[in-house]
C-alpha cells in the first residue's frame, strides 16, 4: 500500500510560502501521505528553514524556503501561488510550463474583466489572456469546472463567506439582488504577515477599525460572481472591519425579501442548495467563529425580520482555511479527482 | 474657595453600584471635588468594601456597599440607578422621596409606550405613570428638557451610538428613514458583571457572536427617539454582535440617500448639528474604538457610496462612559446647571 | 481493510465529557477510524446534543450527553474520566467493572500519599486502595508501566510542563533539586468551563492574576514525581498565573547549577533523555506558545546564566492537549499497544 | 486665578513625542491647567498633526509634531526626552541650554558605570560626563535628590516594579540579596510603537514569548540601584516575557528569607517603608494588572512560603504610566516643588 501511494503521490510546490496562507497550506499538506511537498519559495525569507519562521511546523515540514527562479524547476503536479495580488499574474504564466495545475490564492485571476480589475486593484493587468481560462474556485458553485481546470482562481476570504451566504436566496429569487448590505468582520491574519505599525498588537488590540469603505477589491468579486450565477444585476454595499482576533470572518448580510416566506422555507432552500456540500453547515443557531476556526467549514444561519421585511444571513469561516488554504486544497482535490474532503476533515 | 465648594457640594447615591456601570460612576465621581458620594448600594455584595470588588478604586472610594433599604435614607441631591432593566422601575418611585433628581441607567423609562416596553422587555411595567414625566437623557438632543427634569432615562449604549449617527442626516432629510441598517459591535462589559458560561473568557475570546437578531430591546428605543425627533416613521434593522474587547461600541449604519449630496455637504450638516456638542467629534478619518475608550466622546465618520446611493455612517463610543456612566454624569451636570463637561474632560 | 478496523475497533466512553478536557477528547477521537466513541456523559448537560454545546463538533460527534448511571453500561475498552478532582475517585472504582482500562484526567490518583492528597485537595480520599495501583501517566517517564496499567492517572497540566523541563538536568545531577523556582502562565481554558464572575471575559481580559501561591495542589505532584524519578528530595516554589489567552502553558523554571556546564552540554542531556520521545522538541530558540497550541508537543528551551550560576528552562504545552486530552490519548495508545502518536500527529 | 496660573505656568517640551511614552506624556499633561505644552518633536512623523497619530487626543492636544532642531528653541522649564536608548544621550547635552530641567525616559543615564552601559546596551556612551550628575528618578527612593536635580534618569518599567518590590525586605535585611529571581510579564506597548513582524498582532495574540534571557539591559539597572540603596552586593536573575495585553507589568519576585518572620511582620515593613508614598499600595490580596492600568499606582502583595523558606513578592504597574510617563511627571512635580500627585490622581 505504501508503494501504491508513492506511485500516486501528488507533487506540490508553493510559491510564496512564507506568508500566512502559505504556512497554512504547509500545515494542511504536511499531514497528507498522498502529497509530496517538493518546493516552497519565499522572497526575503529565502534560504531560511521553514520551522524558524513557523515553529509549529518543526518536525513536520523539513524544508527551507527557496528563492523563486522562474523556468528553473522540475515538474510538479500542482503549484499553489500565495503571493500578494499583483505578483501572482507575473509568475503564473511561466509556472504553467512546469506545473500541470496552478491554483492562485491571490486576486489576480478572479475577475473576468481586466477593466474592473484595474479600477479596484489600481494597477494594470499583465496576463489578460489567462482571465477567460481561469476558473473561479468556489467548489460549492463551480465543482465541475474546477475538476477540468488547469488554472483556478481561489476566492477571496470575504467573497467566500458572502457568496455562500447569498447563493441560495438569490438563486431562488427570494431576495432583491440590488439591495444587499454586507457587513464583515475579519481576524487580523487576513491582512497577512506584515511589518507595519497599523498591524501591530498595540494598535489593533482592544480596537475595531473599518477600512476601504466602498472601494474594497472584493466588491466587484462578490458582485460579478453572483451576477453570473443568477443572470441578473447584483449590487452590494460591503464594509470590512478589522477586529482583534487572529482567525475568522464573521459576515452579516442584510437582504430585502421579495416573497412572503418563513424561516423554515428559507432554511429548506439552503439545505437543498447545499445538500451535497461537505463544508457548508446550515445552522439553527446563530453561528460563531469558534465553531469554524481551523476547519474548512462555512457555518450559515438566518433570521427573518418580519417588521422590516428583511432576511438577515450570518456566515462564518476561518479566513486562512475555507477563506484561503483549505479551499485551495479542496480545489486541488477536485482537480485531481480525489475525495473533496481529503486532508480537510 | 474650598469652603464655597463644601457649601455647594452635590450629594450623590448610586443604587446598584456593584455592576460595571455603577463602578464606572464611582470612578468618574471619585475625582470630583464638588461631589460627595454618600451611599453606594448593592445586592449580593452588600457589606463588602468597594475596593475588594474593584481594586483600582482602592484609596479612591473608601466606602462599603450597603443594602438598599427603600425609604430609609437621608436626602441626596442626585440618585443614579444602575440596576438591570425591570428592577429600576421598582425602586425609582420610592427613591424620589429622598432624592431630588433621579437618573436611571437601565431601560425602564426610555420608552414612552408601556405596550412597546412589555413587548420587548417581556414583563409588565409597574411604574407606568412615570413614563410621561421621564426625559430621555441624550444631551445632544434634549439638553433643555434634561436641565428641567427630575427623572432622566439614560439612553442605552447602542442607541446612543446609533441615534447620534443618524440625527443630522435624518433631520436634514438626506436619507430614507425607513431603510436603515444598523450593525453594531460591542465590548463584553456591555453585558454586565455576570457569572455565566456564555460570558466566560474561553467562550468569548477569539470569537464573535451576534445575538437577539430582530428582537433586541434597543430597536424600539432607537426608532421611537428618532421618530419623535423628525416627526416621521423610522424603521431600522439592528444586529448587535459581541466581540472580544472589554469596552467600546462600533456602529456601522447603512442608509439610502434621498438627495444628491457629496461628502463635504454631509459633513457640514454634522458639523452644524453638533457645533455646540462638546462630546461629539466629526472625523475626516475612519473612527476607531481606541480613540474613545475611557472618554465620553462619540466619534463619527461618514462615506458616500456613489455606486449604491448609500450614506454609510460609523459611530463609536465607550459603552461604559458615553454609553452609560459618563452620559449619566453629563445629564447630572445639566440638571444641576453645572458645566456639561465637568468631571468628563 | 474497513472490516479489519471494525474488528479491532476500540470502544470508548468519556465520563464528564461536557467540560473542556472532555470536549478535547471528543475532538481528538472523532477523527479516528479505529475508535468508536460509544458514550459521553455529563451532569447538567445530560440529554443535550454535543454539537449544541460545542458547535465545532457538528457533523463530527453525532451523540447526546447521557446521564452517568454507575453500573448500568455495556462494556467498553477504555473509559476516560474528565471530572473535577474529588469526583473522579467516586466513579472510578465502579467504572472498572465495565471498562477494561480507565484513564482519569483529574487529580485523584496522581499522589501516592493520601495524606498529601488530603492536605492539598482539602477533602478525604475515598478510594485509597487504588492509589498504589494507579500509574502516573507521563509517557516520557513511565511508558512501560503505562502499557501494562489498567488505571492511569493522567498528569496535571502544570506538572506536565514542569516535570518534562526538569527531568533531564535532575537525572544528570546538573542542578540542585532543593532550589527550584517554577513560574507558570496558563491560558484560561485550564480553569475549565465554568460560570463565575472571576472567569468572565471582562475580568480576565487585559489582566494577569497569580493564584494559590504556595498552596496549589500541583506542588506535591511535581515534587513527588520528580523525587521518585531521581531518588532524592525535591523542593519547588511554584506560582501559577492566569493570563488572557485561551490555550497554553508557559513555564519558566529557575534552577541552580551544581556543575560547570555549557549550553551545548545541557542540550545534549535533553536530546539524549528525549531521543525516543515523539512529543518533546528540544529547541535552540526561545519556545513560544503558538508553536504548540492544538498539538501534543512540549517544546523546551534552555539558557545558562553564567553570572548567577543558574540554568533557566522554558517549557510550553497546550494545556488541553499535552496537558490533558492529548496526553490521555497518548496513554490510551500505549495501553492498547498502538503507535504512541496515533491520532495525535 | 486664571492669571495666577498663567504666571506660574510650566512650559514643557517633549522630544520624541510620537512613541507610546511620548503620547502618554501628552495625554497626562493635556489635562493640566498649570502646564503649557509648547513643543512636541518627532522623527518620521514631523509635520503631522498629533491627533492623526493619536485620535484620542483630538481636541486635547492641538499641536503638530515638529522636527527636532538642536539649539534652535525658545526656553522651556522642562524637557522630557522620550527617545530610544542610544538617542537620548545625543540630544540631552544640547537640550540643557534651553531647558532648565531635563527628564530622560530612556536608558542612557540610568547606570552610573559607562562600562556596564556599554556591556548591556552594546554601544559606546557619548555623554559620560553627565552620568554622575543624573539622578535616578524613582521618587519612592530618591525624592530629595530629584527635587534638586536638573537631569533625571526616569527608571525603566521593569526596574520600577522590581525595585519597589524589593526595597523594603532588602533594607530590613529580611531576604538574601544574592538569591533573587525576578519573573516579569509585560504588555506589548512596552516594546514601543514599531513596525515589525514580531510585534504584529497575529504573532503576539494567543502567544507568550520570553526574551533577552540573562542579557536584558534592566538587569544592571535593578542590581546597581538596589546595591546602592542597601550597600551590599545584589544579584538577580531576570526573565521578561511578552504577553498579549497592551498595558501592564506583572512582576513575581522569589526571594530567600534570612529571618523567621510572618506575613504580618513583612507587610508592616512594607507599610512603614512606603508610609509617605502616594503611589504604592500594599495589598492584602493578590495584585492584578487591571487595578493599576492607566494609573500611576504600584500595587504590591506578598506571600511567605514556609515550606521553602521563600518570600514571594508580586508587584504590578502600568508600564506607560508608573513605568514611564506617569513617573516622569511625578519627577517633574518634585523638581518644580509641586504636589507630587498633581495631574496623576
Written description of the protein model:
Four copies of one chain form a homotetramer. Chain A has helices spanning 2-8, 20-30, 50-53, 88-95, 114-121, 139-148, 157-171, 201-204, 218-230, 263-273, 321-336; strands spanning 10-15, 35-41, 76-81, 99-104, 135-136, 151-153, 180-186, 209-210, 236-242, 249-256, 280-282, 298-305, 310-317. Chain A contains eleven helices and 13 strands. Chain A is of the alpha/beta class and 345 residues long. In chain A, the strands form two sheets. Chain A has a seven-stranded mixed β-sheet with strand order 8-9-7-10-13-12-11. The first copy, chain A, has a six-stranded parallel β-sheet with strand order 2-1-3-4-6-5, sandwiched between helices. Chain A folds into two domains: 2-155 and 323-336, Rossmann fold, CATH 3.40.50.720; 158-319, 2-Layer Sandwich (Dihydrodipicolinate Reductase, domain 2). In chain A, helix 2 packs across helix 11 (321-336), helix 6 packs parallel to helix 11 (321-336) and helix 7 (157-171) runs parallel beside helix 9 (218-230). Chains A and B meet through strand 7, strand 8, strand 9, strand 10 and strand 12 of A and strand 7, strand 8, strand 9, strand 10 and strand 12 of B.
Brief write-up:
Four copies of one chain form a homotetramer. By secondary structure, chain A is an alpha/beta fold. In chain A, 31% of the residues lie in helices and 21% in strands.
Strand content of chain A: 15-25%
- The residue-averaged pLDDT of chain A reads 95
Radius of gyration of chain A: 20 Å
Oligomeric form? homotetramer
Could you name the ranges of chain A where pLDDT drops below 50 across 5 or more consecutive residues? 1-6
Main interface: chain pair and counts: A-B, 41 and 41 residues
What is the share of helical residues of chain A?
25-40%
What is the name of the CATH class of the largest domain in chain A? Alpha Beta
The number of strands of chain A is 13
Shape of chain A: globular
Measured distance between first and last alpha carbons of chain A: 22 Å
Number of domains of chain A: 2
Q: What structural class is derived from the secondary structure elements of chain A?
A: alpha/beta
CATH superfamily of the largest domain in chain A: NAD(P)-binding Rossmann-like Domain
**Main sheet strand line-up of chain A:** 8-9-7-10-13-12-11
Amino acid at each position: 500500500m505504501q508503494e501504491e501511494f508513492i506511485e500516486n503521490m501528488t507533487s506540490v510546490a508553493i510559491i510564496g510560502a512564507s506568508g500566512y496562507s502559505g504556512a497554512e497550506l504547509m500545515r494542511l499538506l504536511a499531514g497528507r501521505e498522498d502529497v509530496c511537498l517538493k518546493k516552497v519559495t519565499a522572497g526575503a525569507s529565502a534560504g531560511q528553514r521553514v520551522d524558524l519562521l513557523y515553529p509549529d511546523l518543526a518536525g513536520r515540514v523539513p524544508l527551507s524556503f527557496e528563492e523563486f527562479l522562474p523556468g528553473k524547476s522540475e515538474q510538479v503536479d500542482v503549484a499553489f501561488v500565495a503571493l500578494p495580488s499583483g505578483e501572482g499574474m507575473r509568475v503564473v504564466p511561466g509556472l504553467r510550463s512546469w506545473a500541470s495545475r496552478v491554483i492562485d490564492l491571490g486576486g489576480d485571476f478572479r475577475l473576468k474583466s481586466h477593466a474592473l480589475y484595474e479600477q479596484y486593484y489600481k494597477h494594470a493587468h499583465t496576463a489578460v489572456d489567462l482571465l477567460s481560462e481561469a476558473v473561479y474556485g468556489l467548489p460549492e458553485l463551480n465543482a465541475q469546472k474546477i475538476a477540468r481546470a488547469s488554472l483556478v482562481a481561489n476566492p477571496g476570504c470575504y467573497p467566500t463567506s458572502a457568496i455562500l451566504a447569498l447563493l441560495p436566496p438569490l438563486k431562488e429569487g427570494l431576495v432583491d439582488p440590488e439591495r444587499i448590505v454586507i457587513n464583515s468582520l475579519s481576524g487580523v491574519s487576513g491582512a497577512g504577515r506584515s511589518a507595519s505599525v497599523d498591524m501591530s498588537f498595540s494598535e489593533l488590540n482592544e480596537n475595531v477599525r473599518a477600512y476601504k469603505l466602498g472601494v474594497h477589491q472584493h466588491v466587484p468579486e462578490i458582485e460579478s460572481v453572483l451576477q453570473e450565477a443568477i443572470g441578473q444585476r447584483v449590487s452590494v454595499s460591503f464594509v470590512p472591519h478589522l477586529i482583534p482576533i487572529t482567525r475568522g470572518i464573521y459576515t452579516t448580510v442584510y437582504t430585502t425579501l421579495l416573497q412572503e416566506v418563513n424561516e423554515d422555507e428559507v432554511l429548506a432552500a439552503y439545505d437543498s442548495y447545499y445538500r451535497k456540500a461537505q463544508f457548508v453547515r446550515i445552522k439553527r443557531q446563530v453561528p460563531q467563529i469558534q465553531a469554524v476556526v481551523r476547519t474548512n467549514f462555512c457555518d450559515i444561519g438566518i433570521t427573518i425580520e418580519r417588521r422590516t421585511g428583511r432576511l438577515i444571513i450570518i456566515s462564518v469561516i476561518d479566513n486562512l482555511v475555507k477563506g484561503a488554504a483549505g479551499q485551495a486544497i479542496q480545489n486541488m482535490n477536485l482537480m485531481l479527482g480525489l475525495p473533496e474532503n481529503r486532508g480537510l476533515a
